[in-house]
Amino acid sequence: MSNTLGNLFRITSFGESHGSSVGIIIDGLPSNFEIDLANIQKELNRRKPGQSSISTTRQEDDNFEIISGIFENKSTGSPITIIIPNKDFKSAEYSSLKEIYRPGHADKVYQYKYGHRDYRGGGRSSARITAAWVAAGAIAKQYLEKKFAIKTEAIVSSIKDIHLASPFEYLNWELAETNIVRCPNESISSKMIQLIRDTKEKGDSLGGIISARISNVPIGIGEPVFGKLNAELAHALFSINAVKGVEFGSGFKSTLLYGSENNDQPNSTKNNDGGITGGISNGKAVEISIAFKPTSSISKEQNVENISNEIVPFSITGRHDPCVLPRAVPIVEAVIATVVLDSILINLKNLQLK
Amino acid sequence: MSNTLGNLFRITSFGESHGSSVGIIIDGLPSNFEIDLANIQKELNRRKPGQSSISTTRQEDDNFEIISGIFENKSTGSPITIIIPNKDFKSAEYSSLKEIYRPGHADKVYQYKYGHRDYRGGGRSSARITAAWVAAGAIAKQYLEKKFAIKTEAIVSSIKDIHLASPFEYLNWELAETNIVRCPNESISSKMIQLIRDTKEKGDSLGGIISARISNVPIGIGEPVFGKLNAELAHALFSINAVKGVEFGSGFKSTLLYGSENNDQPNSTKNNDGGITGGISNGKAVEISIAFKPTSSISKEQNVENISNEIVPFSITGRHDPCVLPRAVPIVEAVIATVVLDSILINLKNLQLK
Amino acid sequence: MSNTLGNLFRITSFGESHGSSVGIIIDGLPSNFEIDLANIQKELNRRKPGQSSISTTRQEDDNFEIISGIFENKSTGSPITIIIPNKDFKSAEYSSLKEIYRPGHADKVYQYKYGHRDYRGGGRSSARITAAWVAAGAIAKQYLEKKFAIKTEAIVSSIKDIHLASPFEYLNWELAETNIVRCPNESISSKMIQLIRDTKEKGDSLGGIISARISNVPIGIGEPVFGKLNAELAHALFSINAVKGVEFGSGFKSTLLYGSENNDQPNSTKNNDGGITGGISNGKAVEISIAFKPTSSISKEQNVENISNEIVPFSITGRHDPCVLPRAVPIVEAVIATVVLDSILINLKNLQLK
Amino acid sequence: MSNTLGNLFRITSFGESHGSSVGIIIDGLPSNFEIDLANIQKELNRRKPGQSSISTTRQEDDNFEIISGIFENKSTGSPITIIIPNKDFKSAEYSSLKEIYRPGHADKVYQYKYGHRDYRGGGRSSARITAAWVAAGAIAKQYLEKKFAIKTEAIVSSIKDIHLASPFEYLNWELAETNIVRCPNESISSKMIQLIRDTKEKGDSLGGIISARISNVPIGIGEPVFGKLNAELAHALFSINAVKGVEFGSGFKSTLLYGSENNDQPNSTKNNDGGITGGISNGKAVEISIAFKPTSSISKEQNVENISNEIVPFSITGRHDPCVLPRAVPIVEAVIATVVLDSILINLKNLQLK
Question: Which of A156, B118, B248, D157 has a Cα-to-Cα distance from D28 of 20 to 30 A?
Answer without folding.
Answer: B248
